[in-house]
TrEMBL record:
Alphabetized UniProt keyword annotations: Membrane, Transmembrane, Transmembrane helix
Spans through the membrane: 12-31, 82-101, 108-128, 161-186
Protein name: Copper chaperone NosL
Domain of life from the UniProt record: Bacteria
Annotated source species: Parapedobacter indicus
């Protein structure tokens, strides 16, 4: 009867591979925001990693100054200190649950990972909201009632700039790991219910 509490070998392999992929996310860009305008036909790109910002950060900061947005600096975000460790912990948790093969631990991991994903997206939305709304009143360019919050995901027009926000490679890996984890939980749940029916 003990084997009833253990997860399938395929699901164990999925978890271990998912854990290794999550560890790789630490070094990969998670999100990207692209800005397009007539004066920048090649576009401007902001890449958000778990611990830093990359892309045309200086040019974007220069443009943001005119509309009163705060300067984007990685040092201003506690998330860049915590996120690499949190992703690393989840990556190791995936691997350890895969090795231990305990169904109970799989369910706990799923709940914790789902919560982490929701909190991360809410925090990212709050970050975008603050930068788009907390403007310097003495900025050179002021448009009454205008906010400059980039979209969490998708496209939004901000004055003469089009802002496009989408997961980068690390973000897609993160999403894929969540989907595969949900798949493992579903398969195990089906197995338990099939055996007891």
């Amino acid at each position: 009867m003990k084997t009833q509490h253990h997860i399938l070998s395929l699901n164990r392999a999925i978890l271990i591979i998912g854990g290794i992929a999550l560890l790789a996310v630490i070094a990969l860009p998670i999100w990207r925001i692209e800005l397009d305008a007539a004066q920048y036909p090649e576009g401007l790109e902001l890449l958000i990693y778990s611990y830093k910002l990359e892309g045309e950060v200086d040019i974007i900061n220069g443009l943001n100054h005119y509309i009163g947005m705060k300067t984007l600096r990685a040092d201003d975000f506690i998330e860049f200190t915590l996120l690499p460790y949190l992703i690393g912990i989840y990556g190791l948790a995936f691997i350890l649950v895969g090795i231990s093969a305990r169904r109970k631990l799989l369910n706990i991991l799923f709940g914790a990972f789902l919560l982490f994903g929701v909190i991360s997206m809410v925090d990212f939305w709050r970050w975008l909201y603050e930068y788009g709304h907390d403007l310097n009143p003495s900025a050179p360019i002021k448009v009454p009632g205008m906010a400059y919050q980039p979209p969490l995901i998708g496209f939004k027009q901000l004055l003469n700039f089009g802002a496009f926000s989408i997961p980068a490679i690390g973000g897609w890996i993160f999403i894929a790991c969540g989907i595969l984890l949900a798949y493992c939980v579903y398969v195990e749940w089906r197995m338990v219910n099939y055996k007891t029916s």
